[in-house]
Amino acid sequence: xxxxxxxxxxxxxxxxxxxxxxxxxxxxxxxxxxxxxxxxxxxxxxxxxxxxxxxxxxxxxxxxxxxxxxxxxxxxxxxxxxxxxxxxxxxxxxxxxxxxxxxxxxxxxxxxxxxxxxxxxxxxxxxxxxxxxxxxxxxxxxxxxxxxxxxxxxxxxxxxxxxxxxxxxxxxxxxxxxxxx
Length: 181
Hints:
Blueprint: E1 2-5, H1 11-24, H2 36-48, E2 53-58, E3 61-70, E4 80-87, H3 96-110, E5 115-121, H4 126-134, E6 138-149, E7 152-162
Parallel strand pairs: 4-5
Antiparallel strand pairs: 1-2, 2-3, 3-4, 5-7, 6-7
Helix pairs in contact: 1-2
Protein name: GNAT family N-acetyltransferase
InterPro entries: Acyl_CoA_acyltransferase, GNAT_dom
Pfam families: Acetyltransf_1
């Protein structure tokens, strides 16, 4: 499996993976899948912020993707990112999510970020919760019944992981963001 920077040529596969999760799952609270133009705009937004969007290529296909975004836009949050990971159903439980998340964590640490937050859709999403716990995330809270999808109330589960020195020291400079690589 190769982890590479997402490009426009991957958008069709990314859109199909995300559409599946929007229509059949509870990881995303979107109820209508965005089209390829919207997904391309999201990729450009991530690239414009100089944050990474990675794809996992397995057997010549996009098996999953992961991107990092600002947890919040205010300056005080500049050292904190949020991860988003989606895996093609045919590649689940094959290490795709684990490899993508490890790659994203390494990128964030190398660029001087100090905290990574995961906002997991629904407290029943055992796959994502397990993935994040294995990667060193800790449960920090649950927002109960904040979403309504598929005719039922859904929770948002918040997990957090320190990056690098975490909060044990103050940073000497702002995080280094550069091209999406």
